[in-house]
Write a structure and sequence with these properties.
The complex is a heterodimer.
Chain A: H1 3-24, H2 32-43, H3 47-77, H4 80-93, H5 102-109, H6 113-137, H7 141-149, H8 154-188, H9 197-207, H10 211-239
Helix pairs in contact in A: 2-10, 3-6, 3-8, 3-9, 5-6, 6-8, 7-8, 8-10, 9-10
Chain B: E1 2-9, E2 18-25, E3 30-34, H1 41-49, E4 56-61, E5 64-65, E6 73-76, H2 88-102, H3 119-125, H4 141-154, E7 159-163, H5 171-187, E8 191-196, H6 199-205, E9 208-211, E10 221-224, H7 237-250
Parallel strand pairs in B: 3-8, 3-9, 6-7, 7-8
Antiparallel strand pairs in B: 1-2, 1-4, 4-5, 9-10
The chains are: A mainly alpha, B alpha/beta.
């Protein structure tokens, strides 16, 4: 996706919002211009602190899930035996909406950052493990035979075949999960915290009734999701150049 | 150099493919293994490569029992087996990278670190040195097979095993690569064994031809074809004659 067209689409949406707000003239729907003004002034106050808290939680969850789910997916995908053992478990757990575990996670892990990170991690973990497992299982047998005939044992196969072959799957899983991760981040930050964009949005919208600030938080959360999405895109271009070779 | 002794092999729940099969290959010989689909020619090649193990009997190379792939044996497959995420140079260096990865452990790489000609030499020799930064998806089938050949020859094998390496290439590229590979094998004293279903290719490349029949195979059916590899062999009467004999033996019109 070209950055120019994304920028143009964003501008179009902001214009539509501005027109709608002017037409409806409601207290709960301030104009784009007003919200953007508040957003810039809030950036000089405590909004960056909330943004950083959210960014840390979602980034830590992403890194943790890649670190654990990618090797697990590769291991399961390249071994029929492990696949037979673990796939039914994944099959059972994957479709469960992990948000329902919020109270349980808070009960077991307390109300700090760890619980919030684990909640997002649970969602990403299953997305990544499923895609990486399928990718590792789909590697052409000829590729493995070629490498084995060159002397490669299990360790070299992981290094030269399974890991690079799984990179696109890891990044695709991350890209697909970014939206969900940010949505769950919002829910996680509604509980037992005073830092984070989720808290900022909820507090301004429900307690202070400061709707322009609430919308500023919504924009910032959208930018967080967009930034993560673009980062994954950039990582893919950097780590998987062969996907873009023409 | 290469001995197959009392080889028995069958796939799980399958009928035997080899039953007490014996076969010998001397150093520097060129062999074609010919047969119709399902006769076990690829299975035999994988057994020689150490990628499969006999049900009973044994495969020896230089008197050593083969229990796993041997670092000095090269294998080239029909669909090249190139890593899609690696450039031509990276793919061609792969065998040497695997050796560096393990060090000279005698299992994955030869104990004695031999002088090798290097990837650049083979890339140039195979005429693909201008493609070093391309990915496999960016080059033609013939060029991909050249990369696979460069990768295999870069590890300086003494045995080269090939499984229908030219069958998916167009006629001109196929002829070009056939003469290039057989020339390089002679030049470097490499024992070459090529599996093919093409009678013409078997006759053109193998100074000896092993014909496999419908399984189970118990005794080798060998044809001597000593003039293979000589210039203009393809238009000689000896070539026509061996092709005709093979056709008759295989029951092909």
């Amino acid at each position: 996706m070209k950055k120019g067209s994304v920028g143009l689409a964003a501008l179009g949406l902001l214009v539509v919002w501005q027109i709608m707000a002017m037409l409806l003239n409601l207290h709960i729907l301030p104009t784009t211009v007003k919200v953007l003004g508040v957003l810039f002034s809030e950036m000089g106050k405590d909004l960056p602190e909330h943004l950083l808290a959210s960014l840390w939680r979602v980034t830590a969850s992403m890194l943790l899930s890649v670190a654990l789910a990618a090797p697990a997916g590769i291991l399961i995908g390249q071994s029929d035996r492990l696949n037979r053992i673990f796939s039914p478990i994944i099959y059972l757990l994957y479709p469960i909406p992990k948000v329902v575990f919020v109270p349980i996670i808070f009960l077991f892990l307390g109300i700090g950052d760890i619980a919030k990170i684990v909640l997002i991690f649970l969602i990403l973990f299953f997305q990544i493990i499923v895609l990486v497992r399928d990718q590792a299982a789909a590697i052409q047998p000829q590729l493995i035979l070629s490498l084995r005939s060159l002397g490669a044992g299990r360790r070299a196969l992981y290094r030269f075949v399974y890991l690079p072959a799984s990179l696109p799957a890891i990044l695709t899983a991350l890209r697909q999960s970014v939206g969900t991760a940010v949505a769950v981040l919002y829910i996680a930050e509604l509980f037992a915290t005073q830092k984070g964009l989720g808290y900022y949005i909820y507090f301004n919208g429900s307690t202070l009734l400061n709707y322009p600030a609430m919308y500023a938080g919504v924009i910032m959360m959208s930018l967080l999701g967009l930034g993560l999405y673009f980062s994954v895109d950039w990582l893919e271009k950097w780590l998987c150049p062969w996907l873009y070779a023409k | 150099m290469l001995q197959v002794e009392q080889l028995w092999f069958s796939y799980p729940h399958g009928k035997p493919i080899f039953q007490g099969f014996d076969w010998k290959v001397k150093r520097g010989e060129t062999w074609s293994i010919l047969g119709s689909s399902g006769c076990g020619k690829t299975t035999l090649l994988y057994l020689l490569a150490g990628l499969r193990q006999p049900t009973s009997g044994r495969v020896l190379i230089d008197g050593q029992l083969l229990i796993r792939p041997r670092p000095q044996t090269g294998l080239i497959l029909q669909d090249y087996g190139l890593l899609p995420w690696a450039t031509v140079r990276h793919n061609a260096s792969l065998g040497l990278m695997v050796r560096d990865f393990y060090g000279s452990d005698g299992t994955h790489a030869p104990v004695r670190k031999e002088h090798v000609l290097g990837t650049d030499y083979w890339l140039e020799r195979l005429g693909i040195n201008s493609l070093t930064d391309k990915y496999p998806s960016q080059i033609s089938g013939g060029q991909r097979q050249r990369v696979a050949i460069a990768r295999t020859l870069a590890v300086q094998p003494d045995v080269l095993l090939m499984d229908e390496p030219f069958s998916s290439l167009d006629a001109a590229t196929r002829e070009d690569l056939q003469s290039l590979v057989s020339g390089l094998c002679v030049e470097h004293g490499i024992t070459m064994i090529i599996v093919t279903h093409s009678i013409e290719e078997a006759a053109l490349l193998g100074q000896n031809i092993l014909l496999l029949n419908d399984p189970p195979n118990n005794a080798p059916s060998i044809f001597s074809n000593t003039q293979a590899g000589e210039p203009e062999y393809e238009s000689s009467s000896a070539y026509q004659d061996i092709c005709q004999r093979l056709r008759e033996k295989m029951g092909v019109q």
